[in-house]
Amino acid sequence: MMDFTLSEMMAVVAAREIRDGEIVFCGTGISMLAAMAAKHISAPRSVIFFETGAIDSLLEEIPLAVADSRVMYHTALNGGLADAFATMQNPFTGPRVVGILGAAQIDPFGNLNSTVIGDYERPKVRFSGSGGACDVASFVGRTIIFMRQVKGRFVEELDYLTSPGYLDGRDGRQRAGLRPGGPELVVTDKAIFRFDENSKRMYLAGYYPGIEVAEILETVEFFLDCERAVQVPAVTEKELRVLREICDPQGLIR
What we know:
Layout: H1 6-17, E1 23-25, H2 30-41, E2 47-49, E3 54-55, E4 77-78, H3 81-89, E5 97-102, E6 105-106, E7 112-113, E8 116-118, E9 123-126, H4 133-139, E10 142-146, H5 172-175, E11 183-187, E12 191-195, E13 202-207, H6 213-217, E14 230-231, H7 237-247
Parallel strand pairs: 1-2, 1-5, 5-10, 10-11, 13-14
Antiparallel strand pairs: 3-4, 6-7, 8-9, 11-12, 12-13
């Protein structure tokens, strides 16, 4: 088997999901690596943009953060925060945007908590909150979510709702006045999850080579349909070369 890390597997799985011509909104770390890799794997005409306003940068190596000056290199436009969020809210460009998000908790319908663990007033852990995540989840055409596959992350009920997925399922977004869209893929360090077309409930879509389904189920606190799960293809030699020689030669994300 090819020698790759689970972080590299996560980046490649998300990169494969990005479609040619899509507008990719991403943050720092694995999500940025996935967006960069997609331009060399599946979506050469995709456009990456950041909440700092840089649109269609020439990313020759992975920046350390969205505020890294390298995200401004050879851009089509260096705008600002308002331009970034206007792109998502615009009725013509918004549906073409795929947003890549992360969270501390996720529920069966893809709703996210990135605000607090425990009681809001007396929390066990308090995070930075939404940032722009709620706007992304509410306005763009679809989202990809990165999570760690550990206990306490996949919960029946969130401690706090920061960003909407499908709310209570089916037509929940429509009843709440949100645009169509919602999460399409959840990527973890062990598996991938998708959402049933009708119920909008999460199901196990695939598991990585060497990972057992039982190992995944130990970390999920709600009923999970596993009947559609198949093994996810491993990272190929070409994909690994894209990651290590083109996108991240310094090995910042391994």
